[in-house]
């Protein structure tokens, strides 16, 4: 029989009616110093994990606790560079690798035979650099954007890496965010990307990752945020003449609002459990559409607090241990709920408004 002093480590939910900002800051500061062993299998995505930490601290108004110069130097060390301008047309993408394990040295002639640059890693790298206030004039944006065109396919979709991989809305979003952050849209054919996105809207109003697939919260965010970044839809559509919009706004609004479950949280698909991260993926869609006013905010807040850990951070479901991914999207969700002490969120870029002030 267990003694009363022993405690199940899975019982990490903090019984609190308030957002525990100080605990969350300490959680991220710990992750900034060293990642627990559980993240060994995520080594390939180290830049993405760093994005969750740095952007999370920014949203929590605690960016002063990091060494910005050291962060910039570390992030820039992942960028791939061609040996000469001619290599920009060799089909490869010269962006950022996600970790040291996907970064290979050039051969004796300075040629990157194994180039692990990835669209998602490049988005995360640029987002981090924007957050810490790095001077973007020092970034070789021409190389990034010129080579990024090699990843766009005839149907408008994007591969994430030049060696081939799945093609879906996630990587159109990454490409659009990269162009927006660099303030240069030469890296993609926006019209082709738009047509691919429109082909992904399902009969129920949501968007699937590829044409004909089931509507999904993450895919819907990628679609709507990409269209907004590319200038094809306006903010707060439902208060304007949405009948002329290129997407079916009433169906999308209805589908998005139906994702709020009886426990107050948001689900990513019909008949799924509520999950912390969808408070952002769906909440951000509703913010762009102008439908966030219809969210049951009190019940959403209540659900999120059941996923708040006593160790800081958020878990996917109530009663689980926190992780960086769901912690970050828990912070973004509370920013969307206008929690006191948090910086406002730029929903279409997934970073704070302050960080995007110069874009």
TrEMBL record:
Keywords: Magnesium, Metal-binding, Prenyltransferase, Repeat, Transferase, Zinc
GO cellular component, one term: CAAX-protein geranylgeranyltransferase complex
Entry keyword Repeat: yes
Any GO MF annotation of the entry: CAAX-protein geranylgeranyltransferase activity
Cofactor names: Mg(2+); Zn(2+)
Residue ranges constituting the Prenyltransferase alpha-alpha toroid domain according to the UniProt record: 19-346
InterPro entries per the UniProt record, alphabetical: GGTase_I_beta, PGGT1B-like, Prenyltrans, Terpenoid_cyclase/PrenylTrfase
EC numbers for this chain: 2.5.1.59
Family membership noted in the UniProt record: Belongs to the protein prenyltransferase subunit beta family.
Protein name per Swiss-Prot or TrEMBL: Geranylgeranyl transferase type-1 subunit beta
